[in-house]
Amino acid sequence: MESEDVQIQETALRPIDTLCMACDTSACDFKPMRLQRRPLGPGDVLIRMKYCGVCHSDLHKAADHNSGIGATEYPCVPGHELAGVCIDVGTAVTKVAVGDHLGVGCLVDSCQECAQCKAGEEQHCSKKVGTYGGKDNGSGRAETYPPGRQTYGGYTQFMVVDENFCIHIPKDYPLEAAGPVMCAGLTMFDPLKKHGVGPGSHVAVVGLGGLGQMGVKLAKVLGCKVSVISRSDRKKEYAMSCGAEGFVVSGSAEQMAAAAGTIDLILNTVPSYHDYCQYNSLLSKKAGSKQILLGLHKGIGAAMIVEKCCCHSKIGMSGIGGIPNTQEVIDLCAKHDIRPDIKIVPVAEINQVYTWLDEGNNDNLRYVLDIEGTLTDETCDNYPKDIAPPTLAPVTGSISVCGVLCECLWLLCCCKSC
Ligand code: NAP
Ligand code: ZN
User: Fold this and answer.
1) Strand locations in 15-154, DSSP E?
2) How far is CA 30 from CA 103, 130, 135, 387, in A?
3) Which of 361, 363, 392 for a ligand 1 pocket mutation test, highest count of atoms within 8 Å of Cβ?
């Protein structure tokens, strides 16, 4: 289907054909797949996708890393860093027009009525629906075609989404850079904003990957002094080019000791389970100084409980952000020309990208799929048969009820730094 041929009458009556990149098992061997999106409802927007960023969360989901809290359903179509152009709108749409540059992040619906939704904190709504792997909550705003399936994400040609979950991308901001702002940018911006950091604050980012690089750039533009904590010094020059003033190699006892007591907010993006408590020795004596876990391993679940049980906890967590903050962070990025460092790749390279992310994102890039240029009927019909599945290491410390409770007990009873 050519995007230009999509007619309002047709999209309102018929399901919308789309190609997507899907995997059938936790081996993450992606292949093109044809599916359909729901016909355009009155409040819906049809997006012709241009690009989609690849978040490490996509890998966790596709590889079923956290099956202990809900197994991944296959086929799985990840992607929650969408960027494209509006090519059609439903009859009741008022906030979006054809031709607008639009982004979609991690959410495609929430109840829109609870206190959290009214406060623009849709990520805390009990009826929120994820862009992929979610189920419509009964409102029909995240319904699939045929109805009742799980949601399919942004590795796709066409997306149908409720207008309230569309983010306006300023026209002077490059679309290829916009997707990563929808998740990586937001996930770093939300805790920076909530912790009220600014001039006089010292923020450290642990792990310089997709989230980490956006965290450094955003904290810098908010006026903070920024340091990076990384596994080795190979990313030091890059960290400085992003605006970091300090750089600490986590395995160096001398460098850790030199940074002790100097940092007000630590944003820890490491995707796998590790000794995160060691970083608390770096926290300053300022009231409210804290380490926020963002990576999806059992530590983040434990941090959520510990933070609720003990309001002075030095460990906390954060999960994405709401729609108003997503709009705010893309506007901020456009205003200050903050862009993620990306590599645009054809969809046929997705397996390779998963290998790179699983190896630790050693090139500190956000990989972005060239959807419009490479997810085509031709790709689908001639998809190479010899693409190897990604090489993925076994996961340790994944999120499960038992794992989180044990970690929580350890934090509360044994860890002196939390
Ligand atoms: P990424 O691009 O793969 O970067 C992760 C970085 O962590 C790497 O560049 C590396 O930095 C460091 N790292 C990787 N493996 C490590 C290991 N074994 N030990 C220590 N450090 C390691 O990942 P991302 O897309 O930024 O995502 C990071 C994590 O945040 C993932 O778990 C993702 O699912 C999660 N996430 C959470 C939210 C949320 O709302 N909480 C939202 C989005 C993503 P160095 O080389 O500098 O050490
Ligand atoms: Zn993400």
Assistant:
1) 16-22, 31-37, 44-53, 82-89, 101-104, 107-109, 129-130
2) 23, 20, 22, 9
3) 361
Tokens at 159, concatenated:
């997306």
Alpha-carbon span 99 to 86, nearest angstrom: 5
Secondary structure tally for the chain: helices H, strands E: 14, 17
Report the half-sphere exposure of 103 (CA within 13 A, side-chain side). 33
Give Cα separations from 55 to 21, 223, 247, 342 (angstroms): 15, 26, 24, 12
Ligand 1, pocket residues at CB < 6 Å: 55-57, 60, 183, 187, 207-212, 230-231, 235, 269-272, 274, 294-296, 318-320, 357, 360-361, 364
* pTM listed for this prediction: 0.96
Give the pLDDT confidence of 221-269 residue by residue, as tens digits.
Answer: 999 999 999 999 999 999 999 999 999 999 999 999 999 999 999 999 9
* Alpha carbon distance 385, 375 (integer Å): 16
